[in-house]
Amino acid sequence: MKTAMTLLAALALSATAAPAQTGSLLVLSKHDHTLAVIDPKTLKVVSKAPVGDDPHEVIASADGRIAWVSNYGGGWSLHTLAVIDLVNAKALPSIDIAPLRGAHGLAFSQGKPWFSAEGSKAFGSVDPATGKVDFLMGTGQDRTHMLWVAPDGKEFITININSATVSFFQQVLARDHTDWTATLVSVGRGAEGFDLSPDGRELWVANAQDGTVSIIDRATKKVTATLSINGSSANRLKFTPDGTHVLVSLLRSPDLIVLDAKTHAEVKRLPIGHGAAGIQMEPTGARAFVACTPDNYVAVIDLKTLTVVGRIDAGGEPDGMAWAARP
């Protein structure tokens, strides 16, 4: 185990991200319990690896060699992160985060994976060298579901579904040691999908039960606008890489909503299936990939024409996705 963890740490830290055009799309299949690696040129599966029960989200190391997958278990019954060697397409020993429960949201920062622990109202990080939790912060909020971590590890954002809040954590100096400030921002009911604008100034949050999107000024941590999107069950929300549009997936609706990031107006409703979950942007800004979970495919969206230009068969009930550099 120690040898495997040492290798894992070396792989996670050995390189920086490769150019975007050499990357691969990672897609989780909830039904098959697998992670599929997709060639973005052919849209075909290159490899698959087992990831354990109830996989929900995935994140890759900066060099594209390792992926971590959250085994959600409804937010309580499971307490592991699956680990995948992307180079050799095989599962490595999983990471047990117990007594924390319900890993879900994932991020990669400072050479290590970060996770939300929904069942424990907390989030933390794992040391790749030991496979042990090396940082833990409580949120005090119900269903801490999604997570963002700053590149320097000095700022965190969590989305707390049942509390209808967003938590901002900021590292500060307190005399001779570091401390943390926490700011709670109330948003809509069922807050879940979120994204930071590419310039880092705004946080947009999709509120599933209200059919709204909350826009938060990151500097003041105040809600500056609440948009009605005329659609419930909003699941994920992502900015396009150029910052011009915002895509919102609806879990129980056939449409993908496209919003103008500047005017906040609806640009288009794009029929893509019978419901959608995860959204992943191609770093080049050419395409978006949307997991149409009930339809068992990933829709490929041309971001210039805002049309569906392809489908990917990555396994049953696709959901969480990530982009991985190709080592």
Automatic annotation (TrEMBL):
Residues 1-20 form the signal peptide. The keyword Lyase does not apply. Keywords: Signal. The keyword Signal applies. This is 40-residue YVTN family beta-propeller repeat-containing protein. It holds the Pfam family Cytochrom_D1. Coiled coil: none annotated.
